[in-house]
Amino acid sequence: MIELVATQTGCVDTLERAHNVETALEILEVIEAGERDRPSVLLVDINLGDGSGITVVHRARATFSRTALPIVVFSGSDSETDVKQAYAAGANLYVVKPMRFREFRRRLVSACRFLAVTAARPQRHY
Q1: Which residues pair with 72 in a beta bridge?
Q2: Does residue 81 come out as left (phi exceeding 0), alpha (psi in the -120 to 50 range) or beta?
Q3: In angstroms, rounded to a whole number, what is the distance separating the alpha carbons of residues 108 and 115?
């Protein structure tokens, strides 16, 4: 569903899907090595086939700052623990996936707008 909405809305230019943590980490390694362009945003589902997407967020954030690579975490869970864990790992935004396609599309469009505005804003360092 993420792929369909992301391409329909123009949220991302290109999209590569990793169905599990292992593949996602392999893709990050290639990007870190400079063998592939860094994406403009990382969309991570918490529930991946072989583990938690939080592992992917931790790994990406170890290399890339919040401004260099914004990360949007998607989950079917609205548990406060899951939300806190995602933000602690380095997510820029946490989006609860609704069951209805129309609502999911609206939320992804809102997330893309949020990222576009925050990416264009000068960063303050305190």
Answers
A1: 43, 93
A2: alpha
A3: 11
Q: How do residues 40-57 score in pLDDT, each as one tens digit?
A: 888 888 888 788 899 999
Q: Return the CATH number of 2-120, one of 1.10.3720.10, 3.30.70.20, 1.20.1250.20, 3.40.50.2300.
A: 3.40.50.2300
Mean pLDDT value across residues 6-10? 69
Question: What confidence tens digit (pLDDT) does each residue in 64-77 have?
Answer: 999 888 888 988 88
Closest CA to 91 of 111, 112, 70: 70
Report the candidate in 9, 86, 4, 87 with the shortest Cα–Cα distance to residue 47. 86
pLDDT of residue 47: 85
- 111 exposed, middle or buried (CB, 10 Å; 0-12, 13-18, 19+)? buried
